[in-house]
Inverse folding.
């Protein structure tokens, strides 16, 4: 062994077993080496030589902060630190307190590469001197802890040097790491811009002589977040030099500020909710007086908030409401919350329907009033009432209609029954034919034998009418026109019945027929009447025929043989006998004329009326001209109005006018001239034609039978005639829906009036 | 004036006698064949039944036809005459009491040559017969014989 090595080995043994601890660590506090003494202190089982442990592993959190705040900064800046007291926590939960003396080794670029430390262990039984110091350390530690818990740091400020000295907690509160140089400028750099003025003001106050101050202000941390700080300070003054020294504490009050803010915000929020709510909010005290209403509530009732305050709740309702409110308030006093509808009376004295959500309020466990949320349901209430009213009206109308419908249905079915009208409804698409009860009677088919198809109806139809009936139905379906035709059916008893079919077609949106609905009724009686009428018309024709043939033939015989007697045997007869025979012939011929006239009348009755525009003035003039042409009458002076135009059958009107004009001429026969008027006047608003003469007239009292056939007002010897003329006139006028009458006076003319198409 | 037969279809004995008297007064001497019903008239014209020995080509110069006849009425007779090739051109004058429009219309539709209504007054009737004879027996050109 070299002597140098021997020395080294001994030194090493001495070093390891020294009564003080020795250790080296790098600047991150990783232990590089330690002597045995230190190793034993901190962990008897672990060899610390291996450099895998950090000094900080043995620190409590507080110790670490204290170490990094107050040990390392001066060590790094000055290169050594002396008598730094620290308490280590050991793995066996014991603690040891050490006094450290450290220096640093640097490399050539001044980087710290090693911290060398000697440590002296302090034990309670050890040195009394150290004891006092230990208590101080303990107090410091406790202060530090208290500051940390209260988030309060302490500081000093020397205005002469403008330098701050911050406690560890203070640094933390202000967000400084070890980078705070204590300068006033740096401190002011983190103050919230809005609070700079506040701080400047404080500073001026201090210069002016303030001895203490308190201020809340904000700082902006490095991460940009804002922290509220409460700072309290006292100012020490040297009265002789005027030098000042400030001591103070700063507390992080961000949480409190946030809580305050939160409270303020939530109060604001509730205040806003209450003030701006659409619902009314109403509070009363235990005397039922209003202690609070919001704007909405006041608005609803038409008052201002001030008008409502201190007013009794009952002020805002009518008598019925008061009664109800009293009952409700009793419930509140018993602690019962409730939702109910209520009717207030507004300032304008109109009802206000509301929905109230209300409950009691308590103070010290006793009823202290009530709080209510009030919703305006006036519109809803009005709408409800309107709906109710409408419903009632609708119901009434429905009932009325139902009643009407029932009455109509009853009437219809009675009418149907009375008239024996059956109703059918044929679903064309599905060929379902539905008959009502009356149909079964019309067709005399028992309902259980009816198959309910078109063919069932078709089977009842008379064979001769089947084709035409099917054709008619088909035409109606194709054209969509109304169905209207007669057909015969054969009843099971073989009797033939005439049926009237009437119906209409329903089409779908494509225009295809889907339904044929209609009525059938028995018109056999009507048909047989028609047939009988037809028959009697035929009989009348046959009668007329035989009159003209069979009655005239013998007349011709009588006349003919009378003449033969006169011609062949006239020489054997005296004049009287000859005259008698002449009379036989005259009467015979007269009878022939009567028969002809009668035939004419019956022919007129059987004429089908034509309708055309007829100028009666032209016809009357031509009749008069024909009479003049015959030349066997006195001169005729005719006053005929122009354009007496009507609608009707020209031939029949001419026959009518011929009769009247002939009469007028005939009954003027004994005068020197004949004057005839033909014109139109209005009688009782109706156009009335008249033909007037200045003839012999007649006795009005005996004119009742004037228009009857074969009725004559004059003796045959005075005026010839058959008495058929006026009967014909009346027949023709009544065929034209008109009336004829006459006014006359004996020897003072006659006027015949007639109307057409009344 | 030719000498050919006149066929009078008339059932009324009085009218037959009066017609003969009128012919006589009008100096119409043509033989007058009387058929008292429609069937008899047709039998005569077509030489059937009682008249089967008659030459059916020997037609009367004119037929005076009453309409109201027993068995077969006048319009049926007219129809049969116009429907037969032998007689379709035969002049037929309806001589009747009827003035019914239906009778007139049907008669003309069936091709009657004239329609005359018998007046009640015999003087007038005799005049009608005179003119009828003058016209049909003297003035009128008879139709050609059918082939």
């Amino acid at each position: 062994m070299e002597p140098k090595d021997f020395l080294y080995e001994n030194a090493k043994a001495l070093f390891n077993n020294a009564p003080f601890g020795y250790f080296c660590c790098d600047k991150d506090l990783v232990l590089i080496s330690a002597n045995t003494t230190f190793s034993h202190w901190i962990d008897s089982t672990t060899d610390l030589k291996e450099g895998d442990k950090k000094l900080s592993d043995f620190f409590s959190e507080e110790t670490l902060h204290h170490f990094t705040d107050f040990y390392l900064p001066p060590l790094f800046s000055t290169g050594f630190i002396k008598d730094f007291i620290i308490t280590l926590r050991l793995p066996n939960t014991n603690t040891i307190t050490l006094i450290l003396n450290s220096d640093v080794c640097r490399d050539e670029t001044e980087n710290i590469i090693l911290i060398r430390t000697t440590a002296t262990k302090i034990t309670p039984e050890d040195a009394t001197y150290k004891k006092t110091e230990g208590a101080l350390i303990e107090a410091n530690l406790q202060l530090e802890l208290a500051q940390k818990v209260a988030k309060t740091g302490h500081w000093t400020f020397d205005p002469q040097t403008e330098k701050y000295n911050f406690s560890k907690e203070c640094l933390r509160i202000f967000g400084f790491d070890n980078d705070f140089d204590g300068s006033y400028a740096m401190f002011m750099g983190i103050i919230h811009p809005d609070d700079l003025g506040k701080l400047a003001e404080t500073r001026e106050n201090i210069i002016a002589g303030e001895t203490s101050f308190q201020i809340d202000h904000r700082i902006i941390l490095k991460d940009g977040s804002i922290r509220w700080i409460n700072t309290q300070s006292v100012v020490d003054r040297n009265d002789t030099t005027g030098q000042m020294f400030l001591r103070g504490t700063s507390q992080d009050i961000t949480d409190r500020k946030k809580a305050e803010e939160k409270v303020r915000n939530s109060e604001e929020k509730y205040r806003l909710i209450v003030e701006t709510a659409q619902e009314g909010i109403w509070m009363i005290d235990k005397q039922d007086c209003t202690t609070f209403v919001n704007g909405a509530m006041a608005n609803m009732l038409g008052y201002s908030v001030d008008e409502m305050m201190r007013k009794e709740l009952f002020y805002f309702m009518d008598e019925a409401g008061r009664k109800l409110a009293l009952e409700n308030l009793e419930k509140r006093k018993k602690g019962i919350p409730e939702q109910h509808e209520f009717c207030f009376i507004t300032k304008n004295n109109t009802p206000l329907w509301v929905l109230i959500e209300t409950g009691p309020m308590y103070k010290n466990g006793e009823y202290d009033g009530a709080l209510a949320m009030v919703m305006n349901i006036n519109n809803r209430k009005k709408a409800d009432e309107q709906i109710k009213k409408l419903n009632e009206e609708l119901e009434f109308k429905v009932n009325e209609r139902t009643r009407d419908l029932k009455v109509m249905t009853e009437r219809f079915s009675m009418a149907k029954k009375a008239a024996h009208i059956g109703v059918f409804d044929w679903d064309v698409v599905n060929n379902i034919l539905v008959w009502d009860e009356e149909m079964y009677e019309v067709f005399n088919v028992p309902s259980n034998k009816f198959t309910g198809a078109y063919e069932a109806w078709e089977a009842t139809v008379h064979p001769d009418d089947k084709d035409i009936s099917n054709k008619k139905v088909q035409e109606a379906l194709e054209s969509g026109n109304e169905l209207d035709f007669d057909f015969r059916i054969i009843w099971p008893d073989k009797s033939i019945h005439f049926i009237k079919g009437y119906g209409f077609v329903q089409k779908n949106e494509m225009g295809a027929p889907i339904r044929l609905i209609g009525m059938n009724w028995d018109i056999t009686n009507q048909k047989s009447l028609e047939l009988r009428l037809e028959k009697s018309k035929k009989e009348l024709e046959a009668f007329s025929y035989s009159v003209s043939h069979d009655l005239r033939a013998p007349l011709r015989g009588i006349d003919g043989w009378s003449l033969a007697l006169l011609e062949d045997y006239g020489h054997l007869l005296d004049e009287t006998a000859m005259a008698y025979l002449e009379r036989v012939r005259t009467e015979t011929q007269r009878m022939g004329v009567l028969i002809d006239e009668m035939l004419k009348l019956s022919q007129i009755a059987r004429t089908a009326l034509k309708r055309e525009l007829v100028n009666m003035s032209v016809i009357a003039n031509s009749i008069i001209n024909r009479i003049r042409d015959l030349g066997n009458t006195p001169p005729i002076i005719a006053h005929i109005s122009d354009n007496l135009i009507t609608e009707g059958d020209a031939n029949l009107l001419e026959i009518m006018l011929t009769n009247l004009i002939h009469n007028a001429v005939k009954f003027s026969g004994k005068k020197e001239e004949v004057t005839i008027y033909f014109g139109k006047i209005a009688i009782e608003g109706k156009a009335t034609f008249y033909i007037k003469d200045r003839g012999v007239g007649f006795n009005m009292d005996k004119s009742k039978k004037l228009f009857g056939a074969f009725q004559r007002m004059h003796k045959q010897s005075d005026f010839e005639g058959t008495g058929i003329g006026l009967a014909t006139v009346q027949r023709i006028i009544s065929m034209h829906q008109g009336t004829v009458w006459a006014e006359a006076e004996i020897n003072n003319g006659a006027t015949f009036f007639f109307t057409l198409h009344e | 004036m030719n000498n050919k037969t006149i066929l009078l279809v008339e059932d009324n004995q009085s009218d037959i006698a009066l017609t003969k008297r009128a012919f006589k007064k009008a100096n119409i001497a043509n033989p007058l064949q009387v058929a008292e019903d429609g069937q008899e008239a047709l039998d005569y014209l077509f030489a059937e039944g009682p008249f089967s020995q008659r030459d059916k080509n020997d037609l009367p110069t004119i037929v005076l036809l009453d309409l109201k006849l027993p068995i077969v009425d006048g319009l049926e007779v007219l129809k049969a005459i116009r429907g037969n090739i032998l007689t379709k051109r035969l002049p037929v004058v309806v001589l009747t009491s009827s003035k019914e429009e239906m009778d007139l219309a049907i008669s003309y539709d069936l091709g009657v040559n004239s329609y005359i209504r018998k007046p009640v007054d015999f003087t007038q009737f005799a005049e009608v017969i005179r003119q009828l004879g003058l016209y049909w027996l003297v003035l009128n050109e008879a139709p050609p014989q059918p082939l």
Summary: The longest strand of chain A covers residues 351-363.
